[in-house]
Design brief:
homotrimer, 208 residues, 73% helix
Amino acid sequence: MNTVGLVAFALVGATKAIREEFDLFGVAVVGLATAFAGGVTRDILVGRVPLALRSADEITLGLLGVGLALGVSALLANADEHPIAQVSDAVGLAAFATAGAIVAVETGVSGFGVVAIATINAVGGGAVADVLLNRSPFVLLEDVYASCAVLGGAAYWLAVTAGTTGSAAAAACAAVTVGTRLAAVSRGWSLPTAQALGLARKRVDDTR
Amino acid sequence: MNTVGLVAFALVGATKAIREEFDLFGVAVVGLATAFAGGVTRDILVGRVPLALRSADEITLGLLGVGLALGVSALLANADEHPIAQVSDAVGLAAFATAGAIVAVETGVSGFGVVAIATINAVGGGAVADVLLNRSPFVLLEDVYASCAVLGGAAYWLAVTAGTTGSAAAAACAAVTVGTRLAAVSRGWSLPTAQALGLARKRVDDTR
Amino acid sequence: MNTVGLVAFALVGATKAIREEFDLFGVAVVGLATAFAGGVTRDILVGRVPLALRSADEITLGLLGVGLALGVSALLANADEHPIAQVSDAVGLAAFATAGAIVAVETGVSGFGVVAIATINAVGGGAVADVLLNRSPFVLLEDVYASCAVLGGAAYWLAVTAGTTGSAAAAACAAVTVGTRLAAVSRGWSLPTAQALGLARKRVDDTR
């Protein structure tokens, strides 16, 4: 799962950078940042030297995703919106949320800390990529995406607290994350804004 | 003071995200980032696992601020500009600058390091929130805000160097920060630009 | 070399902030961030308390660069594009790439880790400055800049792996970085985009 996730995230990030006409170095950086920034942030938060800087295998997978993005962009205009890319992305989201939850529980943080680290590991890469592309991070603006990792992280923490084995908790986290994400994509779920709930007035000026 | 600061910072951040019509998850993330990003950055700089991930109490206060923002936005258009929010924000600025200065002196950094960590702890949350909202950080553009934390951090370091007790130094830091901030708000102080000092030519093209 | 680099990077960053009409505090922050964010990120990645917070000398050099930017902006419109600033910037790029590679090898990361930390140390400051100025990081968009640090970091790692002394490896890293950078500036080298290589279609709408 982690393998699929690294390749898929690097592919999605690199495709965005290609569309913005970044040069090849920029494409590689945005692709690798999408694949690794979440895990690197997790390792920094728990005080480890990041795995991505220690393991050569991880980087090879990220570069494979960047290469795929370059190859596929010649054929498809929006490789990151292809169903295979979307399913791979959901699998990656689940894999990274689970990896984050496992490391967080090992470090001994609070329940909120487990959910926060699982979520940051899962969506941090996409958020950093969007900052590099000078956009507001899409995970804050659109769809049900980060929320799936929040639910997965909460599932992991509940399972561990209930006394299950680590691998059962990991399976629960992955299943909840990938299941809610695929359901959200196929059914077009979205979270409401405060305006939609009547909690705030809509902006009158839409011309900013 | 720390309690007031966490609630006030989360309120201010969440209110900005509501105004930008982020979904509820995004509102919570921007609110919590405003409240905690400064302290998390401080803990990363000195090599600790962030307190916000270890303590459940802190998160509860942050979520309270987010909830307040949602409740108040139904009634007021600009809850973050209400005098109560502004005074609370100044108290939070002072509390966070003091917390940063204390941790910095414990870690044994240089005088500049004490001022830098106090300032980052105080304004880092607002800066991260602005990056998430895809703006230039307001602390770099406007008013006398971060400068108050700089003065407070310097006061702490001077007091400690002069041999006072830690609590006297903390009181000096908090008093200087909150005092200069409230004075700046009520009197409309602002720092000059290089252009205003005649050190650089004004831009001719205002049409960017 | 490190001295030249700190002053040059602070000068370049502060000059950009002056042009955007930031106030004096903002100018100092962007200048210091340009000089120190790369090294601070390196120290965070390898788990050290950042050198910039421990050493008073380093900060003095950064503030000197900010002061120079203010002084020179009164005389020159684009101090950061002056040949002396450009050569100093190339020397700084080489000095910071070398410092990063040395720390990375001491920490015992992979070959990719050495290249990544050398590059982050060299270009991280400019990237953070651009995020503060609300731009897409120029190192991702323009010219042959970060690529020189990549080549320098690779040269260091190859030299160390081949069994040379640390100082010979450092000389190789610095020579490769500064040499490729100055050649790129004087000859106007640039990396191709995927579109230029025929790997992706050009955007039809150029009106964004």
